[in-house]
Amino acid sequence: MQVEVIEPHGMCAGVNGAIARALELAKSRPAGDRSPIYCLHELVHNEIVIGELKDLGFRFVDRIGEVPRGATVVFSAHGVPPQVREEAARRGLKVVDATCPFVARVHRSARAFAEKGMEVCVLGDPAPAEVRGIVGEVEDAGGRAFVGPHGVSAAKAKGGAAPLGVVAQTTMNSDEVERAVAELARARRVKTMAKVCGATKDRQDAVRRFCRGAGPGAGVLVLGSKTSSNTRRLAEVAEDCGAKVFTAGDVEGLSRLDFSGVGRLGVTSGASTPERFFMEAMRFLRRVPEHVAIIMDGNGRWAKARGKARSEGHRAGAKTLERVLDWCGERGIRYLTVYAFSTENWKRPKAEVDGLMALFARMLKTKERDFVANRVRFRMVGRRGDLSPKLLSIVESLERKTEAFERQLIVAISYGGRAEIVDAANAAVARGEQVTEETFRRHLYAPDVPDPDLVIRTSGECRVSNFLLWESAYSEYWFTDTLWPDFSEADFDRALESYAARDRRRGGA
Ligand code: IPE
Ligand code: IPE
Ligand code: MG
User: Fold this and answer.
1) Ligand 1, atom 1: closest residue by C-alpha
2) Which of 173, 302, 396, 452 could cross-link 291 (Cys pair, CB 3.0–4.6 Å)?
3) Ligand of minimum distance to the alpha carbon of 463
4) Do both 240 and 338 map to the same domain?
5) Ligand 1: which atom is nearest the Cα of residue 298?
6) Among 315, 459, 466, 480, which is best to mutate for testing ligand 1, by the most ligand atoms less than 8 A from CB?
7) Contacts 24+ apart (CB under 8 A), 15-19
8) Whose CA is nearest to atom 3 of ligand 1?
9) Which ligand is nearest to the CA of 294?
10) Do 183 and 310 belong together in one domain?
11) Is the same domain home to 381 and 487?
């Protein structure tokens, strides 16, 4: 079975923002404070996320009346009606509003219609919190709302000269919304404003594109919780396109699926599904390494062969890295560690070293938006004290801003495998520790990152050059003559294919 990632998929900005707010709140509690943080409804519709928040002390309630006076309450990403806001104020609750900005926009549109005296048709399923919030907004403005499929019929039947305002739940099937709007427009004058949000539509369109390209008999695997409306819509879209649809909320569910007979499988995930589950699923379906490390070598020779300055080779190499980071995302590889500058590279001419440091600073500054948009966590490994204060502050600011993301790019700067081991040993000595392999590991630069499964080196050199000496004890190696700036997607896939075919015995028989 050929497994393909459907892009875009997964968490949207609204969900990401809501989770980040909740995590920030948990972190800001004084040490030892175990009082619950209340959340009205599930923050986002995903069991993995909810389970983790419960572990952090979140308590989920269905009614604002269940929150004790004076406590902190988070409004979920789906939004709340104004009546709930008022009740929260009356009860003296501290409110943290995690409403998705697109849902908030639908509220504003619905309210604006109602304030003009228009009736409002809210497309969507009447039950979910999101729709109840929008309806509450219309009613608060003294308006009348028609809701759900019955609402469409009632709004049509009513006719009349006054225009009807139409808004939609942000996670609806965009085709269905268009059909409903067309149906209403045949019966009466309609005005539409906020409809399905861009992230929902883009994910649904990507599934439609995959199904068209893959032809009949293709399968689509949708990852996410049953409670998630946008996840269910993705499955519906795939079904409408004639695909065989599979759904799973966790790895256990995934392991129960039977894909026999499927030639091509597209994988997508809902806007509330954590990326780490998506990547876990990819590793389950294909033998994709969880962690790839690369010795990006050959920039100088690439430049020399073209009669260019070495600095141009480094610039071209930086572009290759951007591409490789995307390829990792598309293949479900969670960690990418790259060797950018070794402890030995300080020996190079000052102009080259200065040029490289300036290139790192520029890259990290200009790419900040991409890291956030693509939900990639940036971190540095290496001797931080060797960096200029300016570069270090850029590094650490980007680390802080991307801390919550699950996919990671780890850049080794002023890094040496021996230096890392020595630094870890000194940290252990300073604490008076008698080390074991397990306790020693805790002093490494990125102790929580699993060892690399695959180490790639470009440019024909078959040596380790002081890279990840501790961590690569059982890594698979793959060498290519290609110089780093020329490293292509086909090269990358060859390395991954080679990895997938290897038998990793780790000393076993
Ligand atoms: C790797 O390319 C990049 C760094 C070490 C910073 P090189 O600069 O080592 O290129 P070659 O090996 O001289 O071709
Ligand atoms: C290793 O490459 C370091 C990086 C890629 C950053 P080098 O080019 O510095 O290593 P040697 O000199 O070939 O061993
Ligand atoms: Mg080199």
Assistant:
1) 297
2) 452
3) 2
4) no
5) 14
6) 459
7) 15/44, 15/77, 15/100, 15/271, 15/272, 16/375, 16/404, 17/77, 17/98, 17/100, 17/101, 18/43, 18/44, 18/76, 18/77, 18/98, 18/99, 18/100, 19/43, 19/44, 19/49, 19/404
8) 297
9) 2
10) no
11) yes
For residues 240 and 215, which has the higher predicted lDDT (pLDDT)? 240
User: Which ligand does the CA of 484 lie closest to?
Assistant: 1
Model confidence at 343: pLDDT above 80: yes
Q: Which protein residues have a CB closer than 5 Å to ligand 3 (ion)?
A: 297
Q: Over the stretch 439-478, which tens digit does the pLDDT of each residue have?
A: 999 999 999 999 999 999 999 999 999 999 999 999 999 9
Cα torsion for 43, 281, 476, 348, to the nearest 10°?
Answer: -40
DSSP line for 161-218? SSPEEEEE-TTS-HHHHHHHHHHHHHHS-EEE-S-S-HHHHHHHHHHHHHHHHH-TT-
The dihedral formed by the CA atoms of 342, 348, 352 and 356, expressed in degrees to the nearest 10:
10
Do 471 and 337 fall within a single domain?
Answer: yes
**9 CA distance to ligand 3 middle (Å):** 37
- Asked whether residue 220 falls in the same domain as residue 181, the answer is no
Would 509 be classed as within a structural domain? no
Residue-wise pLDDT tens digits, 57-105: 999 999 999 999 999 999 999 999 999 999 999 999 999 999 999 999 9
Residue 298 Cα to ligand 1 midpoint, Å, equals 5
Cβ of 297 below 6 Å from ligand 2:
yes
248 lies in the same domain as 345: no
Q: Which of 150, 166, 196 lies at the terminal end of a domain, its last residue?
A: 196
Closest ligand 1 atom, CA of 317?
3
- The ligand 2 atom at the shortest distance from the C-alpha of residue 341 is 6
* Mean pLDDT along residues 140-162: 87
Q: What is the pLDDT of residue 286?
A: 87
Instruction: For residue 55, give both structure tokens.
Output: 């572990």
The answer to whether residues 461 and 360 belong to one domain is yes
Same domain, 297 and 192: no
**In which band, very low, low, confident or very high, does the pLDDT at 407 lie, cut at 50, 70 and 90?**
very high
Q: Which of 146, 178, 196 is the last residue of a domain?
A: 196
Residue 194 banded pLDDT, cuts 50, 70, 90: low
Domain count, the chain: 4
- Which amino acids are annotated catalytic? 297, 345
| Phi, then psi, of 360 in degrees rounded to 5 | -60, -45
Output the CA–CA distances (angstroms, integers) from residue 381 to 85, 210, 343, 414, 506, in the order listed: 45, 38, 12, 8, 26
Q: Which range of residues forms the domain containing residue 305? A: 291-500
Residue 160 has pLDDT above 80, yes or no: no
What mean pLDDT do residues 160-179 have?
Answer: 89
Whose Cα sits closest to atom 8 in ligand 2?
Answer: 297
* Ligand 1, pocket residues at CB < 6 Å: 296-301, 341, 345, 356, 459
Q: In ligand 1, which atom is closest to the CA atom of 296?
A: 1
Q: Is residue 479 part of a domain?
A: yes
